[in-house]
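Project standup — Tuesday

K.O.: blocked on the structure for the chain from last sprint. Re-posting the sequence here as requested.
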Amino acid sequence: MTTIVDLSDIRGGDKKTITHTEGEVWLLDFWATWCPPCQRPMAHNQEMMAKHKEDWKGKVRIIGLSIDNDHSTVAEHVDNKQWGDVEHYHCRNGTCNADKEYGVRGVPHCLMIDTHGKIVFIGHPASRPNLEQDLNDLKDGKTITGEGCSADGDDGGADGSAGKSCKGDEAKTAIESFKTDSQAIMDASKDAVSGMPRAFLVLVVEGKYDWKTKDLSFKLTHYQVFVGSQEKIDGLKEASKGLRDSGKKWSVIERSQAI
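H.V.: unblocked you, prediction finished:
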């Protein structure tokens, strides 16, 4: 973990620098006020910090790094949502070193740093169904494994899924199909997901260009992450079963946790 420089406080003032301290666990969350998928994860960050205010004090830091156009928009949004227990900074693309160094190509985008300052997770928060447990495990000196993790040399493929590969036109058609179908599911499930800490339908698209063959291919992986009551999970699984059809151009990773 490197020192993050040229951050702006959302209340204005001089540029800030944050450096990891031995013994601290960090969750860095790149987000934006205009990003709908960022809102529930950030609300969950606030819930975790409020819940563990005493036992995480001096041990766990959750840091929001907004890529909004200006810091005042972030401050107003944070105040309206009452997300003050999370540390918030403004990190507009190109103005701080973190977005370039940690591969931020879209939001939400998260990193977890262990007590020794090692980055042990990079990726979409949808790939971690129980961030609260992850942070507690890291606080207690344990390692985490699975998608997006680097603990003990794991490259993030612990679930065994490499995604499905397809060409450009196939990928384009699949992406448009996913957008249409997932939007319909989300529109129909707005009331059903109320109160659920996590309810994600995410399609991750990775492109690879072979310079020798001049071939461009894409790997598509669809995540379904549901955390909530078993009744709500079952309902969402039923509503989204069409996205798990074996004939789709993407592989599917399901992660659910009943609470």
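K.O.: great, moving the ticket to review. The helical segments are 36-51, 71-81, 98-101, 131-139, 168-188, 230-239. Residues 164-258 form one domain.
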